[in-house]
Specification:
The complex is a heterodimer of chains A (about 230) and B (about 240). Chain A has about 230 residues and is α+β, with helices and mostly antiparallel strands. Chain A has helices spanning about 85-100, 125-140, 165-170, 200-230; strands at about 20, 30-35, 40-50, 65-70, 110-120, 150-155, 160-165, 175-185, 190-195. Classes of the chains: A alpha+beta (about 230), B alpha+beta (about 240).
Amino acid sequence: MPYNKRFDGRKFDELREISAEVGVIPNADGSAKFKIGKTIAIAAVYGPRVLHPRFLQDPIKGVLRCNYNMMSFSGSGERVRPGPSRRSKEISYLTEKALEPVLDLSEFPSAVIDVYIELLQTDAGTRCAGITAAALALADAGFPMKDLVSAVALGRIEDKIVLDVSKEEEDFEGGMADIPVAMLPRTGEITLLQMDGLVTLNELKEVLKSAKKACEQIYKVQKDALRARYLK
Amino acid sequence: MGELKVKDKDIVVPGDVLADGMDFLPAGGAFREGENIIASQVGVVSVNGRLLKLVPLNAKYLPKKGDTIIGKIADVTNNCWFVEIGYSNQACIPLRDGSMEYIPKGADLTQYYDYNDYVVANITNVSRSKEIDLSMKGPGLRKLSDGRIIKVNSAKVPRIIGKQGSMISMIKQMTDCRIIVGQNGLVWLYSVDPLKEAIAVEAIKKIEEKAHIQGLTDEIKVFLESKVGVKYAIQ
């Protein structure tokens, strides 16, 4: 059966409802909450502080250390079991790599900036929600950044390119590809691009075009959230 | 011809385009990318002729040579004191800059500054790898004994001090407090009257919270007058 209508009635190039808030954890140096559909991510930034063990230190610039974690009650637990795992370790690493290009940490040699990302509720697109929240938290903490990072997960279901894949779509048994994208919306530079499944070159081009448009929408929500903290 | 994309005193966030064209120059908190000048921090724009500067709303303390800071003694070795100053690296007071008085050879250094003592010190040098040297030699540099220490965001320190110290001298005069504001965001307060000390703390917290609002000096003046019950007159 062809995939003509999405489970939640959205258009194929429509995001779920998004909202962002900054400064949700007063004790942290910077923090943010990002919500996309039913997925909720909270990010908190601490530091710079001295990095131990010493062999991990970089005498030229500070080190970014991310920690991605799904809370134990966050999802249905059917496919991904929450908590520390190979998967969460890998996502932590790629979050670092997605955020590093925008950060200038040359003022903090031998130090570490810790970013803790906790997923309160998971409903697909968690790594993207995590990256988006972490970028906001880093900006809130006052670190010099080239740009914010916005991220969104796209997919291919049969012959349709779908934006912001939901849990039902992610679990779709037939031809499905899952493509998380993170980018600097101002310049369109891509800092994360993964693919699980198969797409053709033309489909990938379409995915990136759709991702750019969606990231610009997310970017606007991010910027408004950062301003809203001070415009109350 | 260059065009300014924001107004003076606007709040901007990283990635915002402040201006295009080569007529403007980026200063702190902004950078040039091609033709555009772009913000790199959350801050308030300050347009000064051709110069575009950001006053950050939240920032980590970056030690600078010449800053007077308040720090806590974290470690004492046999030739220096290590001080926690709110930066990732600890700062160091070498023995020769430790005190105005003569420190005899082999003296017990904790007699001068012990663990957990707070000191007012001056940054004499910041190396490229961010090793920080402090000095205790200078007017007003000393160990802090009485009073209390509060912590504020270091980005808000210029606001707490005010133009030519207008804000801080008003708080001092109205509350009869002795106040030292360290550039790193640590503030020392002391008053014989604990109630007045509490008012001063409240005023400083208020400034920290509303640092981005214009006309803050007047608001704090009204606040202090209502709390203390005396009209403020510049001496």
